[in-house]
Design brief:
Layout (H helix, E strand, L loop, with lengths): L1 E11 L2 E12 L3 E5 L6 H8 L7 E7 L11 E4 L11 H12 L6 H7 L15 H14 L4 E5 L7 H16 L3 E5 L9 E4 L5
Parallel strand pairs: 3-7, 3-8, 5-6, 6-7
Antiparallel strand pairs: 1-2, 1-4
Helix pairs in contact: 2-4, 3-4
The structure holds adenosine-5'-triphosphate (ATP).
């Protein structure tokens, strides 16, 4: 499986953010997208996820499931946690599993893995910032998709959380998944660097 972008141009608000970007990631590989603020790291993840349309170029996943689109094979975790505060932890996970579709793995097991088993009936609005991030990570485990697109994924995670997340990323890569992460901080796993927008 290979994710490749060829000659990709991103325009936002009528302004070119980046032009002619080439990139690739293969099964088992993590790519860290780095660059200064505003260089287009989040925009690149959103282009891959199908949430933005490239102004030029192509992004394809070779060797994936031929019956699914690229966005259907991606998990996109934005830097906001995309949770409904009035719904419980379990209800939020259920919402995401319904929205994403496909086979779903056991909620309780996913929540235990990210250390949230004691919060299952709590409204998500009561969670701390790090707990909200952990709940977002539980999505990655509840519905399995090969391409993880992660925007500043370690934000708000404590040291134990970062270790736990490092383990999850390593397992995902060992299963043949791939990761493209926009980050200003080391991810704690081996990555290949993709720098956009010059030196940051
Ligand atoms: N909805 C929008 N409309 C117009 N311009 C936008 C929009 N969203 C982002 N931009 C612009 O696109 C550029 C790239 O933004 P993006 O969020 O992709 O950068 P980034 O590299 O992720 O930044 P950071 O390191 O600060 O998170 C910025 O100049 C930003 O102002």
């Amino acid at each position: 499986m290979q994710l490749s972008g060829r000659d990709v141009t991103c325009v936002r608000g009528g302004r070119e953010v980046f032009v002619g970007l080439d990139f690739a990631a293969v099964a088992g590989e993590a790519v860290a997208v780095v660059g200064r603020n505003g260089s287009g790291k989040t925009s690149l993840l959103r282009l891959i996820a199908g949430l933005l349309v490239p102004a030029g170029g192509t992004i394809v996943l070779g060797g994936g499931d031929a019956e699914l689109t690229l966005p259907e094979q991606c998990h996109y975790l934005g830097h906001r946690d995309a949770l409904k505060p009035a719904l419980s932890v379990a209800e939020n996970l259920s919402f995401w599993a319904d929205f994403l579709g496909g086979e779903r793995f056991d909620f309780a097991e996913s929540l235990a893995t990210v250390g949230l088993e004691h919060t299952i009936h709590l409204p998500a609005g009561f969670l701390s910032a790090g707990q909200r991030r952990r709940l977002s990570l539980a999505r990655l485990l509840t519905v399995r998709r090969p391409v993880w697109l992660l925007d500043e994924p370690t934000n708000a995670l404590d040291v134990t959380g970062q270790d736990m997340f490092g383990g999850l990323m390593r397992e995902h890569l060992a299963r043949g998944g791939m990761i493209v992460a926009a980050t200003h901080a080391p991810l704690g796993i081996e990555t290949r660097e993709l720098r956009i927008g010059g030196l940051g």
